[in-house]
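User: Reviewer 2 asked us to show a designed sequence for the structure in our supplementary figure. I'm pasting the structure tokens here. Could you produce the per-position amino acids so we can include them in the response letter?
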């Protein structure tokens, strides 16, 4: 049985393209990447050959993204952002990130919500997920362990089998 070889994207080439597209200048990008301008240009041409599309319009020393270049830049931004997130999440010396899933009644004062979550945002290893909605919907999510805390502007009515704890803040 014959196996097809699947072309794989060369992420070094993509990174070089991304740097040039962000910098807007081949010479400055080459200096930033610490490679020669000719080597950088060759890497980008190899990426263009693999993709089958030119990524830049070249006019003297000026580079402008083609439509394919704009699409490639959009994908490269996502790829390298995800890479940074991976390094942050799994990098050396990391600490476990704690997520607080907070529900807030849609009619609750925005100033109150901001003042309530502000100290949480300052914690380096804490993440906050905020969901807005009607109090009954948020309580159902809380009962299903989809939320940790619900902020409401009225006391919650007691229900059989539900041990809600209400605190005035």
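Assistant: Here is a per-position design you can include in the supplement:
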């Amino acid at each position: 049985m014959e196996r097809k070889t699947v072309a794989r994207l060369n992420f070094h080439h993509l990174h070089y393209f991304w740097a040039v597209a962000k910098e807007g200048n081949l010479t400055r990008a080459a200096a930033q990447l610490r490679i020669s301008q000719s080597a950088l240009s060759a890497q980008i041409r190899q990426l263009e050959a693999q993709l089958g599309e030119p990524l830049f319009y070249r006019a003297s020393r000026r580079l402008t993204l083609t439509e394919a270049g704009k699409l490639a830049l959009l994908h490269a931004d996502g790829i390298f952002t995800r890479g940074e997130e991976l390094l942050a999440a799994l990098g050396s010396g990391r600490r476990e990130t704690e997520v607080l899933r907070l529900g807030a009644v849609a009619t609750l004062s925005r100033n109150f919500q901001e003042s309530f979550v502000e100290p949480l945002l300052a914690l380096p290893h804490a993440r906050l997920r905020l969901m807005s909605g009607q109090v009954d919907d948020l309580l159902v999510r809380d009962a299903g362990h989809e939320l940790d805390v619900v902020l409401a502007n009225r006391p919650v009515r007691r229900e059989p089998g539900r041990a809600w704890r209400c605190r005035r803040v």
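For the response letter, you might also mention the following. The longest helix spans residues 67-90. The longest strand covers residues 98-105.
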